[in-house]
Design a protein that fits this description.
By secondary structure, this protein is α/β, with parallel strands linked by helices. Among the domains are: about 90 residues, Urease, subunit C, domain 1 (Roll), CATH 2.30.40; about 110 residues, Diaminopimelate Epimerase, Chain A, domain 1 (Roll), CATH 3.10.310.70. The protein contains 18 helices and 22 strands. Strands 5, 12, 13, 14, 15, 16, 17, 18 and 19 form a nine-stranded mixed beta sheet that branches. A seven-stranded mixed beta sheet has the order 3-2-1-4-20-21-22, with no helix packed on it.
Length: about 525
């Protein structure tokens, strides 16, 4: 079936009225004059809209984002008292057996401290409560949750920690210790999370995601996530295109998955198995990212390595043998150095470092020389520019989030959001990649800002590179997928502030309109 769209312009070819002809999910022609049509051709008048290739979020947590939308959301609380008030309100209207929430950030609290079990007990003492920090790398539990999950002061967790003061648990747990309080969703819940998430993403013009979802279940239950996606495909409910960054946590688990048939670029409808995802350290905000010289604002703290060097080397070795790419989470400079060391001598694949935040010039040059790419989140700058100089000192701050420098050395950058860590709206990501200035006037090394074209490519065609789809995705040309969004103004000509307010009006995936703003 043919579909013809009349549009105001097609990025980047023209800002003049054009006609886009679509058949079987693909664009087959773009012209300034209407082509000859058959009686069966469907015509849609989008002549008031400019269309752009669909955004491709290069790293997020699709199921986790969907789950977070029904949790107690704490991103706007600025004190312990406000957190307690929000939790109390949530508990009175939600009757889950275990209460979960997300989004608090102690750096924003007037008390400048972490919440603890007693803060939560004052709001809800009868049901277990787990509240995750915005980064998702630490959480606070109430006393009921501590008892429910049988946590004790003498537990030792490799790559994680349970905070204890004077022999008593504070309620704070970090990194791998989070696995001790995992609540495994059913297949139906996982499917609902995806449907909920994709509805929000399509409203932002996102048509593809590269996503880490296996962490939603116990390590050896990874097939449950794959089965949920395949069920959505079978029911024609998976609209967005999914490239799974598969987190098989140990070498033994990775070997088992490969034996069971895991192979990068296995495709099932709009779901595709992607690279191995590895979590190598924590987050900057929680001070669990590994910093070589330690935290400038917390003497003695250096963060955590999640994996030993031997385990990382073994994972790399297995991936090379199985022809799998690796996407390794690395935020601290010590972690990035470790990752580059274990990649030494690896010359195959489209390997990348996710986040890739705290860097010096030597690491940037080494990364470029080794051909390692970066999956980064420019929207992190909104918050991080307020803490980076104090966390790592002014010297390291100057060479971190250095997108222009990384591009100039040939490092491929693809943009994403890490949702639900951040809101997935790509317009905010574009804004911070280009302008690097908060609305309140705080700036972060504006000379590292990108052009609109560089930033937009990082959110579209560069993402397609990592899923081996540059021949069909990331551009609006004949032979490419008809995945695009429509806006009322050309993005490249907007005033900076307009990028933060402009709304996507329509989104198409495979030529099908999957979102229309009402």
């Amino acid at each position: 079936m043919l579909k013809l769209l009349k549009v105001a312009g097609v990025y980047p070819k023209t800002l003049t009225p054009s006609y886009v002809l679509i058949e079987d999910e693909l664009i087959i022609a773009i012209a300034t004059e209407p082509p000859k049509l058959t009686e069966e051709t469907i015509f849609e008048d989008l002549s008031s809209f400019f269309i752009y290739p669909g955004f491709n979020d290069s790293h997020m947590h699709l199921m986790g984002y969907g789950a977070s939308l029904s949790q107690c959301l704490l991103g706007d609380v600025h004190s312990i008292d406000a957190l307690k008030e929000a939790l109390t309100t949530y508990c009175t209207s939600h009757f889950f057996e275990i209460i979960t929430g997300r989004g608090w950030n102690q750096d924003l609290f007037k008390e400048k401290r972490l919440p603890n079990r007693y803060d939560l007990d004052a709001c809800c003492s009868e049901r277990p409560v787990i509240l995750y920090r915005a980064c998702g790398h630490i959480a606070v539990l109430n006393s009921k949750a501590i008892a429910h999950f049988k946590l004790t002061a003498d537990m030792q967790i490799t790559g994680g920690a349970i905070d204890v003061i004077n022999g008593e648990l504070t309620g704070i747990i970090r990194e791998n210790a989070l696995s001790l309080v995992k609540i495994e969703p059913s297949k139906a819940q996982l499917m609902t999370f995806v449907e909920t998430a994709q509805a929000h993403l399509m409203a932002y013009g996102i048509t593809s995601v590269q996503t880490d979802d296996l962490i939603m279940v116990e390590q050896d239950h990874y097939a449950a996530v794959q089965d949920a996606f395949k069920a959505l495909v079978d029911e024609n409910k998976l609209k967005i295109r999914v490239y799974e960054q598969s987190q098989f946590f140990t070498p033994d688990l990775l070997r088992k998955a490969i034996k069971d048939g895991y192979n990068q670029n296995n495709q099932y409808g709009r779901y595709t198995d992607g690279p191995l995802k590895v979590l190598a350290d924590g987050s900057l905000g929680s001070r669990t990212a590994k910093i070589r010289k330690g935290y400038h604002d917390a003497p003695g703290e250096k963060g955590l390595f999640i994996h030993s060097e031997d385990d990382l080397r073994e994972l790399v070795k297995i991936c090379q043998s199985a022809k799998l790419d690796l996407a390794i989470h690395g935020i601290g400079d010590a972690t990035i150095e470790l990752i580059l060391n274990v990649f030494e001598g690896v010359t195959t694949g489209r390997n990348s470092i996710i986040h890739c935040q705290i860097m010096d010039d030597e690491l940037i040059l080494k990364m470029a020389k080794q051909g390692i790419s970066a999956l980064v989140q420019p929207v992190f700058l909104e918050y991080d520019m307020t803490i980076v100089p104090s966390r790592v000192g002014p010297v390291l701050a100057r060479t971190s989030y250095a997108y222009k420098k990384m591009l100039s050395h040939g490092i491929i950058l693809a943009f994403g959001s890490d949702a639900p860590v951040e809101n997935p709206n790509p317009m905010r990501g574009l804004y911070y990649a280009i302008y690097r200035e908060r609305p309140d006037g705080l700036v972060y090394y504006k000379e590292e800002g990108l052009t609109f074209e560089e930033a937009f490519d990082a959110y579209t065609s560069a993402g397609a590179y990592f899923s081996y789809e540059t021949h069909i995705k990331g551009r609006l040309e004949p032979g490419y997928l008809a995945d695009f969004f429509a806006v009322t103004k050309p993005l490249e000509s907007l005033h900076p502030s307009e990028l933060l307010t402009l709304k996507v009006e329509k989104t198409y995936i495979g030529g099908e309109c999957t979102f229309t703003r009402k």
